[in-house]
Amino acid sequence: MNKALIVLDVQAGIVSQRDVTGTIHAIESVIRDFEARNEPMVFIRHLDYEQEGSPLFHTKVDNLRFVVDSGQHQVVDKSKPNAFSNPALKSWLRDHQVEHIFIIGFNTEYCCLFTAIAAEHEGFKVTLIEDATGTVNTAETYEMPGLDIQDFIGSVLNWSGCIEVLYVDEYRELYSK
């Protein structure tokens, strides 16, 4: 089964909002795994076309957090949480005969969640690597004391029975051979 990694919105405008060092390390380790196996990766960049004050406003958008060789890795821009809102993503995945996608990046409760659901709807096997997703939001953002956003989203997706949710070590055990 052909696999690909989708790296969502790892952009300075997002990751500079709070300390996400642990998540960045997990993301980097998964990227290194895919690079070592020479498996395809696509980097998704969020551009905000409506809110001028947004750190992702399209005229001020920063580069992706990771150096992306334009000849080696595909970059797809989006302006909605669901990365499949840009048809170029699905076309790229189909062109590469991808059947199984792995999702990492930001923000767990928006772009990772929406993209995972859309990918499953599009017929892909989907694995979300929970500890290689992160958010700049907190329980206070949602006025829900004690909320662990990543765990909550991971649980919802896992309980759906449609999307596989793993931690980095579980992913390595199952897929990094």
Summarize the topology.
Blueprint: E1 3-8, H1 12-15, H2 21-36, E2 41-46, E3 74-78, H3 87-95, E4 100-106, H4 108-121, E5 125-134, H5 149-159, E6 164-166, H6 168-175
Parallel strand pairs: 1-2, 1-4, 2-3, 4-5, 5-6
Task: Describe this structure as you would to a colleague.
- This protein is of the alpha/beta class.
- The chain has helices at residues 12-15, 21-36, 87-95, 108-121, 149-159, 168-175, and strands at residues 3-8, 41-46, 74-78, 100-106, 125-134, 164-166.
- The protein has a single domain (3-175), classed as Rossmann fold (3-Layer(aba) Sandwich), CATH 3.40.50.850.
- It has six helices and six strands.
- A six-stranded parallel sheet has the order 3-2-1-4-5-6, sandwiched between helices.
- Helix 5 (149-159) links the parallel strand 5 (125-134) and strand 6 (164-166).
- Helix 4 (108-121) runs parallel beside helix 5.
What's the overall average pLDDT, rounded? 86
Task: Give the C-alpha Rg.
Answer: 15 Å
Relative helix content? 25-40%
Order of helical and strand elements: EHHEEHEHEHEH
Number of strands: 6
CATH C-level name: Alpha Beta
